[in-house]
Write a structure and sequence with these properties.
The protein has five helices and no strands. The N and C termini lie far apart (about 40 Å). The chain has one domain. Helix 2 runs antiparallel to helix 3 and helix 3 runs parallel beside helix 5. The chain has about 130 residues and is an all-alpha fold. The longest helix is centred in the middle third of the chain and has 18 residues.
């Protein structure tokens, strides 16, 4: 099992308790799951709990399809998604509540899929 798949499997076990970047190609379900992560992780409709579940559902599906989805494809998709979510959560004017939400959402990506990479210094934007 690759490190990526191990981290995903471990993170999913521990965590159980319009979009421009691309989902992994190959299935309409990937696009649906990708778009759900985007919606559930961004203002105004997003929430921490919904975002966690959406990230886990998308990563779970990619792990289940490991025979056809490479680690590089999955990581590329999550990096793009994380960056897109971060950018979408940059509302103007940026207020403390917005920063707190964006920080919490980015922390979820870091917790569940650390290989997706940090995207910015949130605190300095206040």
């Amino acid at each position: 099992m690759s490190k990526f798949r191990f981290v995903l499997a471990f993170a999913m076990a521990a965590a159980s308790g319009s979009v421009f970047a691309a989902p992994v190609p190959g299935s309409a379900d990937y696009e649906t799951l990708y778009n759900t992560v985007f919606t559930d992780c961004t203002v105004p409709a997003g929430s921490i709990d919904a975002c966690r579940l959406a990230i886990i559902a998308y990563s779970d599906r990619l792990v289940a399809d490991a025979a056809t989805v490479t680690d590089d494809q999955a990581l590329s998709s999550f990096r793009a998604l994380r960056s897109e979510v971060f950018t979408a959560n940059t509302v103007t004017p940026l207020e403390e509540d917005d920063i707190a939400f964006r920080t919490a959402i980015d922390a979820l990506f870091e917790e569940i899929i650390p290989e997706s990479g940090a995207v910015g210094d949130i605190v300095s934007e206040l």
